[in-house]
Prior knowledge:
The protein contains 7 helices and 15 strands. The protein is of the alpha/beta class and about 300 residues long. It has one domain (about 5-15, about 30-295): L-arginine/glycine Amidinotransferase, Chain A (5-stranded Propeller), CATH 3.75.10. Strands 2-1-15 form a 3-stranded mixed beta sheet. It has a 3-stranded mixed beta sheet with strand order 3-4-5, covered by helices on one side. A 3-stranded mixed beta sheet has the order 6-7-8, with helices on both faces. Helix 6 (about 255-270) links the parallel strand 13 (about 245-250) and strand 14 (about 270-275). Bound molecules: citrulline.
Amino acid sequence: MQTFLRKILISAILFSVSPFLCYTQTPSPDTPSYQFAMVRNISDSFENSLKLNPPLDPINLDLAKQQHEMYIDLIQQMVSAVVRIDADRNHPDCNFIEDTAIIVDDIAVISRMGAIERRGEEGAVAQILQELGKNIVHIHSPGTMDGGDILHTGKHLFVGLSQRTNEYALEQLKSIFQGKTEVVGIPVANSLHLKSVLSFFDSETLIVADTKEAKVIQSNIESLTNEYTFVSVPDVSASNVLRIGSNLIVQDGFSASEATLQDLCNQKSVNLIKIDMSELIKADGALTCGCLLFN
Ligand code: CIR
C-alpha cells in the first residue's frame, strides 16, 4: 500500500471511535491496556501455512476467515486504534503478526523470523511502526527471533530459546534493552514457541500448560525469581491467553482449562471472553499471535 494511503487509513482508524466499546477498561495498575493493535488479514493461501503436524481435518479457509474476523472485532472493542494490514498471498502465515516484531515502550524490535518461509512478513509491519514514531531496531543474522517466543511481563522479558529463536537474538535483545528491562533466556522444548505453553495473565500471574516441558520452563523461571504465581491448565492450546485491560480472551472448547481460568478471573475481577479459533489452531496459531499490542 502506498505510504500516503496507509497514513490515511491509520488516521481514519485512529480518529474513529469503536462502535463496540461495551467492555469497560478499568485495569488494575499491573494489567496493560493498549492504545494500538495491529492485525493482518488472513491470506487466501492460508491452507499452505506452516504446521508442526498435519491437522486431522484440513483447514476450512472460510471458517478461518470468519474466526479471524471475530477475533479482530473483539480487539476493536478493547483497543481504540486498530491498524489492519492487507494479507500477503506470498506469506500464508502473515496473519500471525505477533511473530514479526516486539514493541516495548518506544522501541520496536523487528524479527528475523526463524522460519525462512516467513521472512518478508515483517516489512509492512516495520514501516507502519516507524510511521507511528517507534525507534526501529532489527534482529540481525545469525540471530533469529519470533515474537511468539517473547513474553514481556513488565518486570522481565523472557526469551524462549526454541527452534525459531536463538542465542544470537537473545544477546542482541540483552544489548537493546540494557538498563531498561531484564532479558532472560528460557529453553523451550517440544513446542513451537515459549508462548505456546506460557502466557501473561497479570504482572504477577502466568498461565502455564500442564506438560512436563512447560513445568521445566516454570522451574527455570522460579529458580530465577519468586515474583510469579503459575496457574496450570490441562489443555496446551488453552495455555495461551490474551490479556487486554480488564478482559481475558481464552480459547473456546477446552472446558477443564476454562473452569480454572474462570476461577482465576473471578478472583481477580477480570472479564473472561471465549473465542473459537479451531482453524487457526490447525496452523499452530495461538491467541496472542494474531495481534501486536502497544502504546
Ligand atoms: C508458524 O509455524 O510460524 C505458524 N504456522 C504459526 C505461528 C504462530 N505464532 C504464534 O503463536 N506466535
